[in-house]
Amino acid sequence: MSKTKKLVFLALLTAISLGIWVIEAQIPAPVPVPGVKLGLASVVTLTAMTLLGRKEALAVLVMRVFLATLFAGSFSAILFSLTGGLLSWAVMALLVELFEEKLLWVVSVFGAIGHNAGQLLAAMAVTKTPALIAYAPALLCAAILTGAFTGVAALYLTRALKRFIK
To answer: Residue 38, class by beta-carbon neighbours within 10 Å (0-12 exposed, 13-18 middle, 19+ buried)?
Structure first.
């Protein structure tokens, strides 16, 4: 893939990720637990990691977080999004090559667990409230469910986009 085509593809993935984030922000939380959401923008991050590499996926993630913060965020939004996103990215970056493509959903589940752990740690640090760890079981259950869903979606998106990045 030429440098220009790769740059255009990265910009497109970033725009799609941002659009998904904006739409998902309008959807009410599926359960009454703070911090639980589907995490659909991670579909694009995992797809970028699978198709283009870790560094490129990190660029998509960081650009989405900063652009989302510009549009609708605050300092706390960037803190929680970046902390969760970076930990999720790190976990997925470590695991993505250990699992075959059909098990991408497993990588996504661990990424979702990392994301929730990062946000929970950030919340505990900001509020200086260690008791927030009580949310961990609910966040773990949510991460397993949402991570599996987004991982399957990333698998199908990856397979569909492979023919365009030749």
So the answer is: buried
Given phi > 0 = left and psi -120 to 50 = alpha, else beta, which region is 37?
beta
Q: Where are the beta strands (DSSP E) in 12-165?
A: none
Phi and psi torsions of 100, nearest 5° = -70, 165
Rounded Cα–Cα distance for residues 1 and 9 (Å): 10
- What pTM was computed for the model? 0.93
Q: How far is it, in rounded angstroms, from Cα 136 to Cα 141?
A: 9
pLDDT in tens, 74-102: 777 788 889 999 999 999 999 999 999 99
Instruction: Indicate the DSSP class of residue 98.
Output: T
pLDDT at residue 129 greater than cutoff 80: yes
Chain CA centroid to CA 80, Å? 12
